[in-house]
Design goal:
The chain has a single domain, classed as Immunoglobulin-like. The longest helix has 17 residues. Strands 1, 2, 3, 4, 5, 6, 7, 8, 9 and 10 form a ten-stranded mixed β-sheet that branches. It has one helix and ten strands, in the order H-E-E-E-E-E-E-E-E-E-E. It is mostly beta strands and 158 residues long.
Length: 158
């Protein structure tokens, strides 16, 4: 009789020990995306930039972006080096501090669509899938248009 009672209790204890502690009580991280816009591809070019604002509920990182309209997508930062605007891929992703708006904009951090398969023109939309280190992926539809830029952003080049 004692064996019959202890065996189910031991099985329950084993299951509890194997469960993922983060799947139960905590609130999963969420990332909100707003104001997504992609520039039209310049004539004869197969690349363009996309911009948006991200706000994460907890510290996270934008790790990658995918879209069916481009063969490759990279997350870039622009910065001035030797009086020239230079772009660099953020291979380790873009940090998203908890509760802070992170703007991807001309002249700064942005999404670069490369090997664009067909011209992207004004008025179209571009589906983007954003993948994060912790949060669930976010699907965004970017409108194709010209982003608002400041004088400092004018050197972005795309």
């Amino acid at each position: 009789m004692m064996t019959r009672t202890l065996f189910p209790l031991a099985a329950l204890a084993l299951l509890a020990a194997c469960s993922n502690p983060s799947s139960g009580g905590g609130t999963p991280n969420t990332v909100a995306a707003a104001d997504a816009i992609c520039r039209p591809t310049p004539v004869g070019r197969q690349m363009t930039g996309c911009y948006l604002t991200l706000t994460s509920a907890a510290d996270d990182r934008l790790m990658s972006v995918a879209t069916p309209v481009a063969g490759r997508v990279q997350i870039h930062e622009s910065r001035i080096e030797s009086n020239m605007m230079m772009m660099h891929e953020l291979k380790d992703g873009l940090p998203l501090p908890a509760g802070q708006k992170v703007e991807l904009k001309p002249g700064g951090n942005h999404i670069m669509l490369l090997s664009v398969e067909a011209p992207i023109t004004m008025g179209q939309t571009v589906p983007l899938t954003l993948t994060f280190a912790s949060a669930a992926p976010v699907e965004v539809t970017a409108v194709v248009g010209q982003p608002q830029i400041t004088e400092a952003d004018a050197y972005a080049g795309h």
